[in-house]
Amino acid sequence: MEISPFVIFLAAIFTSNILLTNFLGMCSFLSVSREVESSLGLGMAVFFVMTFTTAINYIIYNLILVPLNIVYLQYIIFIIVIAAFVQLIEMLIERFSPVLYYTLGIFLPLITVNCAILGASLFMIIRQYNFLQSVLYGAGSGLGWLLAILALAGIRQRVRYNYVPTGLQGAGLSLIITGIMALGFIGFSGVVVIQ
Amino acid sequence: MTKKEIFLSSAFTENSVWKQILGICSALAVTNLMSNSMVMGLGVIFTLALSGFTISLLREYIPKRIRMMVQTLIIASYVIVVDLFLRAFYPDMSEALGPYVGLIITNCIIMGRAEAFAGKNRPVDSLIDGIGAGFGYTLVLLLISTVRELFGFGSLLGREILGDWWTRWSIMVMAPSAFFMLAILIWIIEGPLQRKKLNKG
Description:
A: 195 residues; B: 201 residues; two-stranded antiparallel ribbon
């Protein structure tokens, strides 16, 4: 069955949010979500890198790996593409826009090991999306991730000065907030369905 | 440190999941069934131990500037071994875990141990450290998945335990409960430790 790319885009943001239903990108999600500004920076970087790497990986997978029958090398190839792309973007931004480099730059190295980026590429292969579907899936997942980290950062800023049981301070509380957010996102599940 | 101390410290006192909050992604994703968690845990132990060993062997020769890239490639090679093994011998399991096998590459525990331990210590110590950290990780996965499978499916390791009278808690199978269970686990383990520290200080 052919799913419209636009449906995939919406579903990737809301119903199958890569963070809240597939649990990808949790490490940086928990550690960077202290402030809204830095979350926005990281979220934008993830959105940007994810959109482009799914596109590049799709092309490489279908034009190089499949014809040569070396699909089992996909993990290594994908991670190299992601790392190289991040490095390239870092150099370009540093060269052309120092302002952007100071806001986004520090997050770029973190992204290479963000599992959401690799995860999006792997999901696109497993679910057998075509090119347009893959690109919109990558963009949607990136936006969904941005949305989730912004929401968590906003909530964490508000609860910062409230009383929290000792053992729950820090990661424990963030996990519970994320769980409640995930519960909320289940409410979208009637709207669009993929998978 | 003796070998036993290395193992105990990386498995319990410095446990990657509840002490350092690393490797959460897969800890949440594969814990709806015990069998999934067990296979995932074994895969991570294998990758952690051998990549730690290899990175430690090569630590003198890897240029500092590109060490992250080299480490990632070493880790990726071992993950490919795990993936091909699962596909060849346990195709059902490989399907159930889906992309999460490949995502062992970006599991922060492995990178974390490579940076914090294998890059500075001898190969055999790194091997033991890897097994210890992997063991601690598997323990967390099994604890969470036991609760989730028992309440969500009424079974343990695929075997019926609770019978028909038990109403399945479908929330336990869904994503939010994974977040809640991990938070509760961290609370139970870290709470007393942190209170003790507060009382002392």
